[in-house]
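ok here's the first one, seq then struct tokens
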Amino acid sequence: MSLTLFGPGGVRAVVNSDLTPEVALDLGRAVGRTLGGTVALATDARDSARMVRSAMVAGMMAVGADVVDLGMIPTPALQFYVREHPGISGGVMVTASHNPPEYNGMKLILGDGTEATTEDEAELGTSYAMEARDADWDRVGRIRTEEGAISDYIDAIVSKVDAEAIRSAGLTVCVDCACGAASFSTPLLLKRLGVSTVTIGCDPVASPHRDSDPTEENLTTLMGLVRSSGADMGIAHDGDGGRAVFIDGTGRFLNGSVSGAIVARSILAEGKGKVVTPISSSKVLEDVVTEAGGLVKYTEVLSHQVVRKMQENLAVFGVEEHGGMVFPQMQMCRDGAMALAKMLEIIAKNGPLADMVSQLPSYSTRKVKVPCPEGLKVPVMDRLHRDVEAAGSRMDVTDGIKIILNDGWALIRASTTEPCIRVYSESMDAGTADRILSEYSRMVKDLVRGLTDASRAQPEPR
């Protein structure tokens, strides 16, 4: 496996193609050497989870690391466990998050429960590339299983919200876990909070009924269920339970910036502060935060960058446009279950989610993926930067290229997890948002096509 598979989202690769048992074994060795001591391990619900987990455990133990196997739990539950147990040197989550089912991989968790940074991932990559001797026979690591991580995690979440207000509100929620890692924990949380629940995709051993990425086009069943059941809202997770995407009581999909704006307003009402969000977020978040007396700080479109920026600025909240929310009063990582509990508290105290959404400034946001081979991402983005600069357009290069227009904005950035370039657009007018998206996605497609043709035309080296 090439080191290019070590990225800011951890390791993600196709199972038994790039991610073979041999590769997973060496990944385990690298994790064991990097973290040392006792490492907590958990998995999501993918079919390949046990195979990858077994190989990684063998690798960690081979270099002398001890392993605590927590079983199938959400990533934030693993992060909470690591943070709450000082004797744990770090954690590894066997997951490919929202990637398709043929993928698997891992996320590295540091000893404070936060996700590894790019620099940490580079260190892991270096360790993976090393030829290092395994431990002597009498220093091989040991493994033990531990139950109760989910229960402790849920207890902590319940303690951070007004549970009695939620229980008294008589709410009904439709839940879609895509047969992922949150299939046990989220229904348990709702039960603890006295919320009536209608579930789909909450059987982790079943075949998922949808892709694990909780996008609007993947949540049509959930949106229909909310409408037909008369539920107060719907909630969807990604494969490892880090993200929470909401559907209001009318069955309307909410962009993460919209739901984040509602949560940010509630948090800022309790105390002013800074809110951190990636450059891809809708302007609705900045509008709401500013009106509430807070300050938005923008960062790259990476969850660990949001967390680091929050730590630097002592921020009170962090939110990503695809549904990640970070609550420092709980833990410094995106946490889908905590986001659900907080939204329930807000609805219990302020009324229907749809009514709160209708009070926000209205923006139309669009997003599309343009396929792009890994080797062309940098040349495409470099060429685009030169073209936009030559046109005299206003730019923000916090992450990718954000073009500031009079009637909206466009953002073009290379994906860190998939072979594509993501194009975003936004305007207060839906037609304008469509036009901006069409214009810039066409520009990216033309660049990809042109550079592909140019590379094919190059004579092969003798």
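and now the second one, same deal
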Amino acid sequence: MTQARPVLVVEDTPSLQTIYRSVLVAAGYSVVVAGTAADGLAAFRAQTPAIVLLDLILPDRDGMTLMRDILAENPFACIIVMTANSTVSRAVEAMRAGAFDFLVKPFEEDRFLSSVKAASDELRDSAARDAAPRRRAAQAPADRSVFIGSSEVMARIHRTIGSVARSMATVFVTGESGTGKELAAVAVHARSSRATGPFIALNCGAIPPDLLESEVFGHMKGSFTGAISDKPGAAAAADGGTLFLDEICEMALPLQTKLLRFLQTSTIQPVGSTRPRKVNVRIICATNRDPMDYVRRGLFREDLFYRLYVVPIHMPPLRERGADVIEVAEAALARFSAEEGKDFSGLSDATRAFLLAQDWPGNVRQLLNVIRNLVVLNEGGLVTPEMLPAGMATNTLPLDLTDRLAVSPLTAHPRTLAQIERQAIEAALARNDSSVPATARELDISPSTLYRKLEAWGIKRR
């Protein structure tokens, strides 16, 4: 059955017009075709289509300008831009300007129809809701159910999440450790049409490189030593939902090539399998590194970077969020007090001033640890600076590491820097029961870096 309103195709090449029309009609859509920007705008005003397939290179006018005109008349129109490989950067620009998805020519029929279906599903879901409240929610300066903090920088993040959540665009979250990058990914997923689907998070830096491909794409029984049964990977588990790839810059180059192929074809091929499988997954990735620096150094594929870096979201460090520090601290104090059965009446003025003066190198995660510490070690009442952990006097290192180094024997006998580094890592491994991910978190280094050092030293890992 065809839908009430047609799909508008704005494409100036007659042969492609014919192909797109025939594929869409066979899939049950009614179609209107235009060959110029002027005809496209006229058809949009006459037919009021909700889905527009738009070529960015048109003979009479730039496709980006036409897209802006269409969105000005109907902000909820789903525009899927089409572009050649040489103009992928224009497609990325279009996504940031409000496009729903983009297709790089030549694209496969399945990818084409998947994008149109996703747009159709989004329109169906939004029709079940009241459009006015939906727009207000997207433009709200803050959503306290997702993040705590009312600073302007957080308000901008909420607006970006509200805008990008309804699209198919990949989201690239950057920021220091402890700033809430995974929370941002969860927020995008929760406000999207995929909210009822799975949200699968995978830390690319916490998995040994030789096992990462299996974790992402799965493996078949017997495909390698230890593969005692078939295992679906994270991409398959996220089918119909969102796959969150944390520490994406730690992914090895060979696997980056396979990830790029996955993004281009929406197919996965488990290790040891000869048959690819289609999945419908939205990708959100994150890193605490400088991704452009990794690209310049040849550690991250440039084509993959631009495929992923469509809508960037930068999570600011806590030291740049002003009074958000107090809001986060008060909310944490209330939550931890309830969990521990304690009765705290709030933060004293001196405590507020002290918290605001800190640099917070560990960001929100560090602040939460501080509040948890004082709740556990004190009985209640008004929180004064004396209740805070003593290690806060030194804020150039995470609190727990600062305390340990203050009494560390490392400086008792001079050694080479390499010896000091190895001793510090071995001591941290002992404290964390030889767990590489836990040790890496404590030392604030990448797990993949730690794996390489341990392999070089011949130290047993897990």
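notes on #2: The chain has four domains: 7-128, 143-316, 321-396, 408-457. Residues 129-146, 393-414 have pLDDT under 50 and may be disordered.
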